[in-house]
Amino acid sequence: MPPPNTPPELPDEALRYLEHVRVEKRLAARTLALYTQDLLRLHQYAQAVGLPLLLLTSGHLRRFVAQMHGGGRSARGIVLILSGWRGFYRWAARQGLTAHNPAQGLRAPKAPKPLPKALAVDDAVRLADFAQPGDDPWVEARDAAMVELLYGCGLRVGELVGLDVAASPAAHQQGRGWIDLDAAEAHVFGKGSKRRSLPVGRAALAALRAWLALREQPFGARLADGALFVGRRGARLSAASVWARLRQRGQQAGLSTPVHPHMLRHSFASHLLQSSGDLRAVQELLGHASITTTQAYTRLDFQHLARVYDQAHPRAKKKPSPL
């Protein structure tokens, strides 16, 4: 008996497979409906090329995938379709209905990498300048310094929490970074333990000095660790804590977008590229091994330019005059 709501035009082997996954695998109704739809689509393609479903080859399926992709189906959607087809042909091989699985080894087209999410310049500045009225001065000074370093230097959150107040043999040995206030530099160890030095801007230096003036007050001599950013108990701040503090600060500052540390790194790169156009310099500052990784920000920069054009150019959105 075919599963309920199964199209009658499906061949017998497809109906048997759908019954198998319904009864023995107990697939959810929604999943079963998707399997049915995908098999019906494949059966219609097989009819178009004049072959039974079980005689389709990898070449046929590859061409069909290309047609779907060209027609606008997403790479993720094709991944799911291929998964269903592989299951069908695997079952058919176990039943002795076919000698091969034409869907085995087929890959969906690569999905385009999503653009990094960056704040608008005004929002980034608002986040950095924000101060919650009545907040603990110690917490406020620490959080302000973290935001200034994340946005002003483009640090990864792991690089931020790995910073020490000053250079030391232990920091070198354990791969931790440090701040050199006199030289206005941050020295960090990024991916692959690659060390890089970054300029620290005037606003970040001021925020760091304000934080360092308060950092030891609650602990005194008990604060033995050289960690630059610590929690209320004196331990080095964790990456999860930085995420939580940034999200809260963004909400309090009235930003519509949830803020996280990597968003400030993206904002640093995007805003720097918009102003300078120097892709190589941005690559060095971010610590990217390949320029290809940094080139994602050129797409962000183009989006910014397109918005400026749409808003400012007299011919961008000029409505046609009525006849």
Could you give a short description of this structure?
The chain is mainly α and 323 residues long. The chain has 2 domains: 12-94, Orthogonal Bundle (DNA polymerase, domain 1); 121-310, Orthogonal Bundle (hpI Integrase, Chain A), CATH 1.10.443.10. The chain has helices at residues 12-23, 29-49, 58-70, 75-94, 121-129, 137-153, 157-161, 169-174, 202-215, 239-252, 261-276, 279-286, 291-294, 296-312, and strands at residues 163-164, 177-180, 185-189, 195-199.
Provide a descriptive summary of the structure in words.
The protein is mainly alpha-helical and 323 residues long. The chain folds into two domains: 12-94, DNA polymerase, domain 1 (Orthogonal Bundle), CATH 1.10.150; 121-310, Intergrase catalytic core (hpI Integrase, Chain A), CATH 1.10.443. 54% of the residues lie in helices and 5% in strands. The chain contains 14 helices and four strands. α8 (169-174) links the parallel β1 and β2 (177-180). α1 (12-23) packs antiparallel against α2. InterPro entries: CB, DNA_brk_join_enz, Integrase-like_cat_sf, Integrase_catalytic, Integrase_recombinase_N, Integrase_SAM-like_N, Tyrosine_recombinase_XerC/XerD, Tyrosine_recombinase_XerCD. The active site is at residues 156, 191, 262, 265, 288, 297.
